[in-house]
Write a structure and sequence with these properties.
CATH superfamily of the largest domain: P-loop containing nucleotide triphosphate hydrolases
Helix content: 40-55%
Number of domains: 2
Number of strands: 5
CATH class of the largest domain: Alpha Beta
Order of helices and strands: EHEHHHHEHEHHHEH
Strand order of the largest sheet: 2-3-1-4-5
Largest sheet: 5 strands, parallel
Structural class: alpha/beta
Distance between the termini: 18 Å
Shape: globular
Radius of gyration: 18 Å
Strand content: 5-15%
Number of helices: 10
């Protein structure tokens, strides 16, 4: 029999460095799951998310080869709030169910940061819009990754190849980072160098997994 499973949500503002922190947890032996990866799989041809969008919008957001035109869809929902809410209503239940199934499977198989009976198995789920979609109750604990606003903007511009205006728009479309920090069980300040961040990750991992 394996230890109990702790399901941790990892979230934070765009550009805060969530994926970087997730990899640090992975290096310590935690199981890491990315909600965006789960969403991408659901949007592959003939998968549930793809079918839902196809049923609702016909060919509108699809390429001639029947793959989803992700760029066209992303631009459309960014410009049209009603459309975004419609797409979210179609996809969010599917993504949520997929994450629950993955986490349940991992717990049942005893995969995690330890196989000792008295040590929790850590599953870290990266969910960028956790609070925006109201999924925090699905997890045992929430870890918020935070960074100075200007650092986040610089990271978004560098990563996505966009100008400051576009980075500001993306940043402003999400919940205020201070609100996320206020609701978190743990906060990781990722404004500094990687070693400073790694120390914080090691401390949280030690607190939870021993």
């Amino acid at each position: 029999m394996t230890g109990t499973c702790l399901k941790l949500a990892l979230t934070g503002a765009i550009g805060s460095g969530k994926s970087e922190v997730a990899q640090l947890f992975r290096a310590l032996g935690a199981r890491v799951i990315d909600a965006d990866d789960a969403a991408r799989r659901l949007l592959e041809p003939n998968q549930p998310g793809w079918l839902a969008l196809r049923d609702e919008f016909a060919d509108l957001f699809f390429n001639p080869d029947r793959t989803l035109d992700r760029k066209k869809l992303r631009e459309a929902i960014f410009a049209d709030r009603a459309l975004r809410e419609k797409v979210d209503s179609l996809l969010h239940p599917l993504i949520r169910a997929a994450l629950a199934a993955i986490c349940s499977c991992e717990a049942a198989n005893g995969k995690g940061s330890s196989a000792r009976n008295d040590v929790p198995l850590l599953t870290v789920v990266e969910v960028p819009l956790l609070y925006e979609v109201g999924w925090q109750a699905d997890f045992d604990l929430v870890i918020v990754v935070a960074a100075d606003r200007e650092i986040c903007l610089e990271r978004v511009m560098r990563r996505d190849g966009v100008d400051r205006e576009a980075a500001l728009a993306a940043f402003g479309a999400q919940m205020d980072p201070d609100e996320k920090v206020a609701m978190a069980d743990y906060v990781i300040d990722n404004s500094g160098d990687i070693e400073a961040t790694a120390r914080q990750v090691r401390k949280i991992h030690a607190d939870l997994a021993g």
